[in-house]
Amino acid sequence: MRIRTKTDLQDFLSFDLSWRKKELTNLHNDVRTANVKKLPTSLRCAVVLLYAHWEGFIKNAAEAYLTYIKFQKLKLNEVNDNILALSLKQKIKEFSETNKATKHVEFVTFFKNNLNEKAQFSETDSIKTKSNLNSEILAEIFATIGISSVPYALKANMIDTQLLNYRNTIAHGNHLIIDIKEYNLLHAEIILMLDNISTDISNACVLDHFKV
Predict the structure, then answer these.
(1) What does each C-alpha distance from 71 to 9, 116, 137, 138, 170 come to in angstroms?
(2) Are 189 and 158 in contact (CB under 8 A)?
(3) Are 201 and 145 spatial neighbours (Cβ–Cβ below 8 Å)?
(4) For residue 108, what are the CA distances in angstroms to 76, 103, 115, 120?
(5) Nearest Cα to 208, choosing from 72, 60, 14?
(6) pTM for the structure as a whole
(7) Between 42 and 112, residue with greater pLDDT
(8) Collapsed DSSP state (helix, strand, coil) of residue 192
(9) Could you say which DSSP state residue 118 is in?
(10) What share of the chain is helix, strand, coil (3-state, %, to 5)?
(11) I want to staple 139 with a disulfide (CB 3.0 to 4.6 A). Which of 47, 149, 161, 187 is the partner?
């Protein structure tokens, strides 16, 4: 993934979201025009793809944002707390998992004396959806990249009990009847959230929110 400039990131977000929305719109049209016999199958397929694009876009967008940040080659004392925590993740893990005072002192010394080193992290290893992108994991992804999850907290029930639960039920081969009105609302809400998330990440890039 080659994302070095703000324009690169915006172009990536726009393209990745555009093709997903086009496919979801086509599926939505299939649902609306399906006859009575085909409607249940069309709805089940549409929900599975709706979830797939939900997870796929969020993972790609977050990784793209981190790729852009990484290319800026900022020092640890130049990034915000979220990116600093991400860069120090391995050292924090070692600190928390040991009772050795020597390791604790080593971490504190590093933190005090080495913040002028370049921020280093793996953008691909940092974003984990666990193929189960619920509201809690979404909040953790936002915390990783430094985006507020507050606007999406009110949608937690819809994400967990409808989108994710329905997808899992269908993907595991279980029978599920989905109401078309419920699907229409779910489709609209997920598309809106994806648009908003794209805007949030784009704005964070433009405004350099990843810097102190």
Answers:
(1) 12, 16, 26, 24, 40
(2) yes
(3) yes
(4) 14, 9, 11, 18
(5) 72
(6) 0.93
(7) 42
(8) helix
(9) B
(10) 75, 0, 25
(11) 149
